Amino acid sequence: MTAPTVPRHWATPVVMACFTVMAATGVLMFFRWQSPLQKEIHEWLGWGLLAAVLMHVLANLPAFKRHFAGPRQAVALLTVAVLVAGGSYFVRPADGKGPSVSALAVQALARAPLHTVADVFGLPVPSARQALADAGLTLADDNTSIDTAAQGNRERVGKALKALAKAAPQPAR
Q1: What residues have CB less than 8 Å from 31, skipping those under 6 apart?
Q2: Cα(67)–Cα(134) distance, rounded to whole angstroms?
């Protein structure tokens, strides 16, 4: 049985395209600059990258085999990669390691009553209420939290906090 043939003029560009999108979305996610769509693209394109690499290996099978025929660097690197990937499943964070400080701060702001959040942003309550309304969030009263008004929707909470930050007086430089 012969190995399936994959046109070489397709294999490498498909790997390059998939890798480029994976790298870009991965960097954005690392720095927390992602949108929910980017996360979905990154996760699903991971399967595309896997298929593209398989295409690339099949299109370049003789050269790929040569990597494993001579010095054992390719075997060693591949072994390390498999061990790291497989071992990551078994490694769990240390006990007591909780969410990040920034995540805790956002949660605290989201759960605080409006009058407290307005103080944190240096805004009068009516200005904070207006900024939130402009962001599409209406609070029942000054004791209502952003989280309650957003019904726990993290995206809406983030949008509301960004609106407050934008409305806040800017410190003099």
Answers
A1: none
A2: 60
* Helical ranges in 31-99 per DSSP H: 36-59, 61-67, 73-90
| pTM (two decimals) | 0.46
Contact 160, 128 (CB under 8 A): no
Name the 3-class secondary structure at 145: strand
Look up residue 107 and give its two tokens: 């949660």
Structure tokens at 61: 């099978």
Number of CB atoms found within 10 A of residue 160's CB: 26
- pLDDT tens-digit map of 27-83: 988 888 878 788 889 989 999 999 999 999 888 888 888 877 877 787 888 888 888
